Amino acid sequence: MHRFVLAAVAALAAPVAFASAAGAQGSGRAAADTVRYAIVNSGRPAGVHTVRVLPSGERRYSFEFNDRGRGPRLETRIVLGRGGVPREIATVGHAYFKDSVEERFSWDERRARWTTPNERGDTALTAPAFYVTENSVPEETAILARALLAAPGRRLPLVPAGEARIERVGDVTVRAHGATRTVTQYAIAGLGFTPVPVWLDRDGAYFGSVSSWMSVIREGWESAVPGLVRVQDSVTSARVEQTARTLARRPRGALVVRNARLFDAETGAVRAGTSVVVSGSRVQAVGPDGKVAVPAGAEVLDARGQFLMPGMWDMHVHVGPGVDGLQYVAAGITSARDMGNDTTTVLDLRRKFDAGALVGPRLVLAGLIDGPGPFQVPTGTLASNEAEGRHLIDRYKALGYDQLKLYSSLDTALVAPLARYAHERGLRVSGHIPSFMTAERAVRLGYDEIQHGNMLLLNFLLDSVPDTRSVGRFHGPARLGATIDLRSPRVRDFVALLVERGVVIDPTLAIFEDQWTSRKGKTAPMFEPVVGRYAPVMQRGMRGGNFPIPPGLEQRYADSFTRMRDLVGMMYKAGVRVVAGTDAFPGISYHRELEVYAEAGIPNAEVLRIATLGAAQVMKRDRELGTIAAGKLADLILVDGDPLQRMSDIRKVTLVVKAGAVYDPARLYESIGVKAGEGRRTAAR
Fold this sequence. Notes:
The chain is an alpha/beta fold. The protein is 28% helix and 28% strand.
């Protein structure tokens, strides 16, 4: 799964990312004129967006794209009112995971009223304000851009809450098929963590919005996407890098953290009254307070008895440009494993994270290989035969990757030869279980690791759910997982095989909890403890119920999640190594992942070990990372609580040190418009 299309993230990101991804024709066009936009996913056609302006001025939109069998299909009608803001909006269709959508908004110059699958609202509104839909078609951000350009001070209030602002970034001349066109980039603030870019023609008509992952562009101008991405990314990078320079601090001399309760990830014990000396990027000394020499001129930080532990590892991310990296660090994650990404993007991010140009964790990389077909992964890393697969493996090895990730559409006949060759090249082998294959078979053919808890359940459901390339891999185990008897010989034999082969599991439980147990109108479990810290526009996307559960099966889906969680707990107790990954919203989803492990019966000390030393050992980085010890890299965090007693205290990160650079999580969050979390602010000044 790519981070952009996960249930929780899609629910949060789609109204922003896709609202910024296309737009409509401006005024002055011929009546009933239809304009088409191409949706391009990692350079491949993925769908179409059409815009039709009727003689009355009413706008009609169709928006559909396909991402491995998932994707929305929306039909929207918009009537504009005073100030160029929508007076009426009506949308029907289905969202990313095919859940039914019906959303309506109206403004009669006195009151605004709206209904969505998640809420019903009504507020007094006598001046123009812009309603932010839960289910956006691309045109909506173009409408917002034009309304903002005409508004006093280029600002507008948002409904249900918030404010949007716009700035003009600059012009670019694009060329295609012998034609040229000058387009202008605008950035809209108030819709997310960072300004949302949108490209308009000279006359204000929408031209497109782009990214390295997915773009929507005026049909016929698809070749302009790479150039626009470069221009746009350079602007975004400059903005984010400028902020990053103000958020990291390197002490002039040594940094001493004293009076801390140090968690020993090797033994699970805690040593109170401990001092740690950091010099440059490494730990210089660790010992009892008063017995560790404090270097002259050192900056001394009194931890006041807070819990000091190694920086954590999120072992399943798909990091994107912008502020993903910042959110990982703010949550106490100083290392992460990227499980499949655009190669150019992720290598650039790794370089910038390491150099401190951007705030982000140190990255280890897994390279993705899928097979061609209707449900292929959109990154372009496809192999239809062994030679193509070996070529990709050689390329990943040359680029410094540590691991291979095989995906759902790969021909099962290629698993054994590609696993064998990857091992010869020194790469670990992991992934989804390809369709029409069991996890047991994949392990016997060379898998070192299995991604996702649903793939574990599917091992016992091949007869009922053979094709797992599309949404069947979610609904099948959700519908049938609760029927699996964890005491059965088949389950016990599979667990024994994983132990025998030393296979690691990366279950990403929190994302399935959100999918299979959330209900419409209620905040999803992943976000419930923190939702109040986010802006109102973001809070709407943190609601659950965006994964369509068939009526009458709500309890069955919830029970299947419980069975998945219990299977992971059973595997851990039997000796299977677990790593903590999320494949979900950056940073805060990791805290819920650790809580679910504790709920599965894994002792809290072992959960913290999984999050630190265990991950470092799996990735063969434990000589440098995973514990706080003299000579190791200085990756450490302070927690204002006791996660050994209450795993939820892991949310109270008050200080992060990564390779000697000091970060205040409260400042990191505040820089992207998120309120500081719980815990005393202890970042050294």
